[in-house]
Amino acid sequence: MSRHPEVKWAQRVDKVFITVLLPDSKNAKVNLEPEGVFTFSANAGGGDHLYELKLDLYDKVNVEASKINIGVRSIFCVLEKAETAWWKKLLCGDGKPPHYIKVDWDKWVDEDEDKGAGDFDLGGMDLSNFGNMGGMGDDPGEFDDSDDEDQEVAKPAASDADKAEHDPNKGGVENTEEKKEAASST
């Protein structure tokens, strides 16, 4: 029996972004039909499990203008819509979307904030290196520059009276005499 990978999606007026999150996938196959049928299959995981996906999209897409990039951690697809219009949802039909399909809030833009075509242009960009993002750089001095480097922060030192007061080895008369000395010196 096949499994379903996690899918994230977002849209613009002229395109739909679909990201299939499946790290270390093997034999990944993506198919897009002009009628708006998106299919995906790959093997992944320790047991080399089969992951399959078929999405009946809300409307038709332009297959020739769409771009698909199979990376190490995910499969990123930019699907060009056949007609420039906002979709009400990703999938056709009246039901609730499957649990493995989620909105990609990192790429989401509201309809009234969309600047139109070209605000998320990927032309010529190699998306295969996106899997390496998010880690620390190789340069050890990369984070040395700080805005507060001229400010020194010192830990408050405890007074001798406070130390004696909290020292379990001291007590009785010695502790009282040290308190008197500390009080007279202030």
From TrEMBL:
Belongs to the p23/wos2 family. It is found in: Cytoplasm; Nucleus. Keywords: Chaperone, Cytoplasm, Nucleus. GO terms for molecular function: Hsp90 protein binding; protein-folding chaperone binding. Residues 130-186 are annotated as: Disordered. Acts as a co-chaperone for HSP90. Residues 139-151 have a biased composition (Acidic residues). Residues 2-91 form the CS domain. Interacts with HSP90 in an ATP-dependent manner. One of its GO terms (biological process) is response to heat. SUPFAM superfamilies: HSP20-like chaperones. This is Co-chaperone protein p23. The keyword Nucleus applies. The keyword Membrane does not apply. Residues 160-169, 176-186 have a biased composition (Basic and acidic residues). Its main location: cytoplasm. Pfam families: CS. GO terms for cellular component: cytosol; nucleus; protein folding chaperone complex. InterPro entries: CS_dom, HSP20-like_chaperone, p23-like.
